[in-house]
């Protein structure tokens, strides 16, 4: 292990959005790696939503709300010996004062700073604390490394918390910063009890142990358990460490916590001289069991000269190996086995994780900062840059985890205490490109699972994968949009990877998945290029009859399959796919386009004959259809086809008219007068884009979500608008989302749909890609951009950098990885040779572009 020459402290971090005191209450920025779980940094400096024990636990702070939740505190001692002690927290919100027993929020009884504000450019969060009664100001900086193309270093179980204290007085001050945690191993947020006196019973914690450790470069607290079942998902270890330096003191225990006396004893100790005195394990009365969740504290003290600053950095690491298979969701057999976590195979325990991570913090922070600066410094509108970055927490939340063998698995989202809709749902994860463009190796594992674990022998793909993977096909549902989308995603990953062996190995499975549509009773059983059968889809219902949602996905899959078949020399299959594509494309333009947008022609589920929704047989229409509605994501297949480099799928003029109609009919500048019988993600005077509208008359029973507005769909429509030159409308849609997630009403780092940290919200990344017009093909060894001037961020899953375009001058920079390309293509210009090819990190190539003739 490398020992750094001096303790690490953070550099200056970029900022994308600032939040004042009135917009802090809902902020919770997740700190944690891909597949590790997270603890969130609140807008006022609190640590909240401790979700590190293999399950969601929104609002969990290791105990029921009270003063014993983990916290950091500051002690300031002046030359005359007077000490002032405060929690490193901003003031409470006006709505946080009432509770039936006087415990409205965590740390309700601790003195706080008078003022707070928050700044962010994910994954960086900064809390600024000040108080006229104190001679110091404090900036808390929290982050977890996030470096595209470097999955291992973006999957670290750590929260970095750095407190910079500035002395505003005219004399030197002795300043201490201390973190305190009760050992809550075994307690995952699902089981908390209080007795009538307000003392909590730590259900789950059992014979937990705190020890002080000092190893090369580190000092700190190690938390483990002697009594929690080693097979429990809540069994594992924690470490709170600082880099080895003078002025470190600790307590591994406190007095018994009867009537909250442990906190009182700590506060008196810390407030005395800003140092801690070790306590023996609490003595208990005869017949009373020992304290199962003892409190421990770690303190660092330094003198700060007048006008000077000093940084106090702590690292919180964790290690909880026993992830259940789709925990909290009943499997088809009723079983729930432990599948484990990939990150815990890399470290023996939390202390080992800290020993690995902390000495490398300079490089980890630098890689993260370069990425964020590249995105934040691009010419894309601020709301696009923010939307792209602020939804990446999905990949670090409990929505996502990795199996020990490395496969990325995902819920659709997470509820407060349970996952939402298991199985890496294909039709939800169709919408995003953040995973393949930032972490291509992880996207590849998702395609491997879809085509080797979820595909049955007849070509039916289970749109939810059961775990363990050996049981992958047990879910018998099939989704038309999900299955076709997986073919498009496989094509995209092949293009990004340029791995012919990957294509050759899985092509038979891909071909089988497409041909399933042509089987008797299939989605296109008559093989006319049009999906007509029973089509289960992302609206969680079955559509009957041709519709744009499935129609465009099918066209994209046909074109992708034709190109892959051509690459492999299967000319007959390629010709069949092309012929079906042409028929289907003509049908969408001629039959589904109604002059304003693409609509759904409903068919009888039994006879497959078209049903006139407004005629005498209207009552025979099956429930939960789209029919003549204007659907928000009617062009999703086309949008993702453009991003995958598959080109246009139908008449572009009709497509533009359709997306103009979505904006005209579905965008509401205010929801104050809008009726919604389902879930409300937009309310009152907020603006948003409806899932569907019916300019020509609504069905009596439309699909369930028709009156809602959800961000993943809004971003998808905005991407189509950008692709078709409707920038102003696209930005209006994205701005509406931005305004709703303002820190006061909603947390800007999670955009819920059916659960928080919802996978479809990652479609926000697509807006950044569409704005630049970026596309990359390792197969063709070409990187492409649109003609929009300015600086653009680009990433291909393994390498990333920036592209500058001003007039006919272009500069391509690689900031990470190696760009394997020998051609640059810019819309409106002839392709330029990249010479020399294969650009490495920190290299640039400059071009003088020649217009197309």
Helix content: 10-25%
Total strand segments: 39
- Secondary structural class: alpha+beta
Which stretches are poorly predicted, pLDDT < 50 over at least 5 residues?
192-202, 328-335
Oligomeric state = single chain
Shape: globular
Mean pLDDT: 94
Q: N- to C-terminal separation?
A: 59 Å
Q: Which strand order do you get reading across the main beta sheet?
A: 1-7-8-9-10-19-16-15-14
Radius of gyration: 28 Å
Number of helices: 16
Largest sheet: 9 strands, antiparallel
Residue share in β-strands: 15-25%
Report on this model:
The protein is an alpha+beta fold and 853 residues long. It has 16 helices and 39 strands. The strands form 12 sheets. Strands 1-7-8-9-10-19-16-15-14 form a 9-stranded antiparallel sheet. A 5-stranded antiparallel sheet has the order 6-5-11-18-17, covered by helices on one side. It has a 4-stranded mixed sheet with strand order 30-31-36-37. A hairpin with a 2-residue loop joins strand 33 (800-806) and strand 34. The chain is globular and about 85 Å long. It starts with 16 loop residues before the first strand and ends in a 5-residue tail after the last strand. The relative contact order is 0.10.
